[in-house]
Write a structure and sequence with these properties.
Blueprint: H1 3-13, E1 25-35, E2 40-41, E3 45-50, E4 53-58, E5 69-73, E6 78-81, E7 83-88, H2 90-94, H3 97-101, H4 107-123, E8 126-131, H5 137-144, E9 152-155, E10 159-161, H6 177-180, H7 185-188, E11 192-194, H8 197-211, E12 216-219, H9 238-250, E13 255-259, H10 262-271, E14 275-278, H11 284-292, E15 296-299, H12 311-333, E16 337-340, H13 367-382, E17 406-409, H14 423-426, E18 427-432, E19 435-439
Parallel strand pairs: 1-5, 1-6, 7-8, 8-9, 10-11, 12-13, 13-14, 14-15, 15-16
Antiparallel strand pairs: 1-2, 1-3, 3-4, 6-17, 17-18, 18-19
Helix pairs in contact: 1-4, 1-5, 8-9, 9-10
GO molecular function, one term: hydrolase activity, acting on carbon-nitrogen (but not peptide) bonds
Pfam families: Amidohydro_1
Keywords: Hydrolase, Signal
């Protein structure tokens, strides 16, 4: 049975308890907001959420009426936007590589992994994520319908890769379908499209768009977690890349590419991509070009070696890990549009560290710069999907008219960013789409 079918079975049997299911309005009183201009907190304000939208923000008390109003006295705590991670793989991040390769991807197994992982991510305060590769569509549909708990998902669907590219997940005994006519296991499960030549790339991109992709993920260079391609190689010809960009732009959205090296990234820029994932081996000249072209750089501060990491992967990752110490400050220096994500793969234990990885940015950015990046800036990148965005509305900011994805923090994160690293203790309220999923304060 295919992974998508198993996920569907799981979704039908799942149940989510949402604290606030029927209330149409929430009034949060005596709450402080972030002021990016002064880099301080505002005086206490009152925030009225109507449905899934922030309706009113006022320094004066708000006279909201109705039997379904939830009133919350924030007692001077800090209200921030929901956190956003723009580089996740919800399925791949919830499973180990041996689990991905097993033939026993049962319904029960998925219930205890993928669904639970999505729920835990939301309860860490991540109300929106961009899933940049994997069989995500059934899980996203179930979250949107309220069948299970999880963040908003901007899905890419199956990654698009050339033969012997970063998305070629075939085992050694799996032959090319072009010559032998057998579709690989990873393709059957919706993890990847192995597409060569303009026509196949067009078909792969359009298939993802057909299923609801909000952006397209193309493998433009070598990777550290794939078996066949060295990190330094460039993948896809210019014509193939242009085909992907043209197909995406015809649907009003964009292509983001996996790439580390200047050569691969320059080719992608020439093809018209709007976002680069990774880029840890970038040089100053290419970073300046990225800034000039107003292209997003979706960067990570990747984890160093872990005990269970394959020795070959450890070797391949060495220049990338070394490069990330240089690329963050250089990108900031040249005014590159930066976004942040985690990119955890095949090591589920890393997921619980998602919030602590925010603190790694303190090497190069102030607290206010970091909070803005992981909320407002990441929110702007999500909206690059245009009409293909699955959730119309403004995210990453607390203002009238914005979507009500909110976190109430016990303290001032502008002064103490570590508050964001312990969501269980410090996040008193977690709201997504106007629905309360955690409330540690008493209603009055």
């Amino acid at each position: 049975m295919r992974l998508g079918q198993l996920l569907t079975l799981f979704l039908c049997s799942a149940f989510v308890h949402v604290i606030q299911a029927q209330e149409s309005q929430v009034l949060i009183e005596n709450v402080k907001l972030l002021d990016y201009t002064t880099q301080t907190l505002t005086p206490p304000k009152h925030v009225l959420i109507n449905g899934n939208t922030i309706q009113t923000i006022s320094t004066s008390p708000i006279a909201a009426q109705g039997k379904n109003i939830v009133r919350i006295d924030a007692k001077g705590k800090t209200l921030i936007p929901g956190l956003i991670d723009v580089h996740v793989h919800l399925v791949f991040g919830a499973l180990t590589m041996p689990q991905m390769m097993t033939n026993e991807l049962s319904e029960e197994f998925l219930i205890n992994t993928v669904g639970l992982s999505a729920q835990q991510m939301l309860m860490r305060g991540f109300t929106s994520v961009r899933d940049v590769g994997g069989p995500i569509f059934p899980l996203k549909a179930a979250i949107d319908k309220g069948k299970i708990l999880g963040p908003r998902i901007w899905p890419s669907g199956a990654v698009v890769s050339q033969t012997a590219g970063h998305g070629d997940f075939r085992t050694p005994e799996e032959k090319s379908r072009r010559f032998f006519g057998v579709v690989s296991r990873a393709e059957r499960y919706g993890a990847t499209f192995i597409a060569d030549g303009r026509d196949e790339v067009l078909t792969a991109v359009r298939e993802n768009l057909r299923f609801g992709a909000s952006q397209i993920k193309l493998m433009a260079g070598g990777g550290t977690s794939s078996a066949y391609d060295p990190v330094d190689v460039t993948q896809y010809t210019l014509d193939e890349m242009k085909a992907a960009v043209e197909a995406a732009e015809d649907w009003g959205t964009y292509v983001t590419v996996h790439a580390y090296t200047p050569r691969a990234i320059r080719r992608a820029i020439e093809a018209g991509v709007k976002c680069i994932e990774h880029g840890q081996l970038l040089d100053e000249e290419t970073l300046q070009l990225i800034a000039k072209k107003n292209i997003w750089l979706s960067l990570q501060n990747l984890v160093e070696d872990t005990p269970d990491m394959d020795p070959q992967r450890r070797i391949k990752r060495k220049p990338v890990i070394e490069g990330q110490e240089k690329v963050w400050p250089m990108a900031k220096k040249y005014g590159v549009k930066l976004a942040w994500g985690t990119d955890f793969l095949f090591e589920p234990d890393l997921n619980k560290l998602q919030n602590t990885f925010i603190l790694r940015l303190q090497k190069w950015f102030t607290n206010v710069e970091i909070i803005k990046m992981i909320t407002q800036d990441n929110g702007e990148l999500l909206q690059l999907s245009g009409l293909r965005s699955p959730y119309p509305g403004k995210l990453g900011i607390v203002e009238e008219g914005a979507l009500a994805d909110l976190i109430l923090v016990d303290g001032d994160p502008l002064k103490n960013l570590k508050l964001l690293a312990d969501p269980e203790k410090n996040f008193l309220l977690i709201m997504k789409d106007g629905q309360i999923h955690k409330n540690s304060l008493q209603k009055r």
